[in-house]
Design goal:
The protein contains nine helices and no strands. The protein is an all-alpha fold. α2 crosses α3, α5 packs across α8 and α5 runs antiparallel to α9.
Length: about 200
Amino acid sequence: MPRQVDYEERRVRIADAVCALIARSGMEAVSLRDVATEADVSMGAVQRCFRTKEDMLLFALEHVSRHVSERADRRIAAASEPQAAATLLRHTLAGVALLDAESRAQAHVWLAFVGHAPASERLSAVLRETYAKLHDLVVWIVRYGQDTGEIPRHFDAVQEARSLLTVADGLTMQVLAGHQSTETARAVLQRHIGHLLG
């Protein structure tokens, strides 16, 4: 009896291939043929998993978005107890900024999708949803810090979260462009967090 194909597993494999191609050569390197080669599947298999190239890119972006969110969650979970708001912010924002070496390829992929999003409302919608979830997380951490007395009440948690995420996002681009090192980017994040702590 022939083995049944696990389509979800194959879709993830194809998404990983899309991301690998983007990390190496940019969004323009993503063709059905090259993705099939990278994923070691037939073009027919790619087409059975994804009706269009945009469907494939959308799934790959959702795949990357999950990784970004999970990375932030892991950094929070790994923080020492008790977890101070400053520690939570530091780990979360570093995860969002994708500053460490293991995140470098993922940062290239993320920025490629951000650059491609204006041409696709569906990709833009996924990015907006991801940013909204991250924003809500940072708002929660700032309010948590206000509840514990680490962060003064006069700060507007929504506005501060917006500023912190904007800084983290900008640092991703500057580190990839070589304008800042990972160390200086971390120092910038720490200064912005310190601003909240007084």
